[in-house]
Amino acid sequence: MSSLLNKPIYPYLYLLAFLSYKSARYLPSFSLITALLFLLVTMTGCAILCFVFRRVSGSAYAGLAAGLLLASMLHVASIAQLAGYQYSYIPRRFYIFFYALVLIGIVLALVLLRRIPDKHAARLNRVANIFLLIISVIFIAQAAIIRPWKNDLKPRSNSALSLPADSRKDIVWLLFDEYASSASLEQQFGFRNPLDSFLQQQGFLVLPRMKTRFNNTLFSVNAIFNEDDSVMPSSFYSGMAMIGSSSWEQFLERSGYRFINLGIFDIGASKKFSDRSGYPDTYLEQLITG
Question: What is the pTM assigned to this prediction?
């Protein structure tokens, strides 16, 4: 075991730690096959990078260069957010500048590390390997013991509404996000939205001052479709899972309605109309998003 820890396996252990961290964010979505395929693909890429850097530099520290490049690829969106960019609006110039900087940094690191005797590489390998093993165990233990999502999965009550069959009519529901709500437009810009009066003329009930206790669209929509705003989901992953088991959509279907979803979330069994790629709703997206 001691001799193994002295080898440069830390780039591969980093991928294991990354998988543990991402999976721990919302363990109920875990898929063993997806996790194994993810490790197979990324570790194969890691082996190729280590081989290339070792042949190019002839350095015992080639694993460090491979690890830095992998980390820059897997965490680029998070780094962009630290730089002040919004997740959904990261400009192309950021990627160009960032990866040019990463490549320059790797080249400089390999040049400088060649001046350090290879005999010291075993010490770096041991420290990095042990550190990554420890944090992998911590992430797994956090997912298994703390389980921050455990309160999110409580059964939802059935709808308190009743819809007599002889009075069933089409229901058209338009939900405006806060940015486009008439109240916000009037408050921020002094603009009176003519859509309100138009909808009222067509027989719609308009609720211009309706508010939610959550400041995130996903959590607010989830509260409506599960008829419960007492629990804020612990994460976006949990919110996507909860809205996917919507009690309201199920109630309407049982009442004889055909539910048509023109939104950006999967609501119950009704798939999203448009994928804005803002929220991950599969385990694979949970791994690679961000």
Answer: 0.78
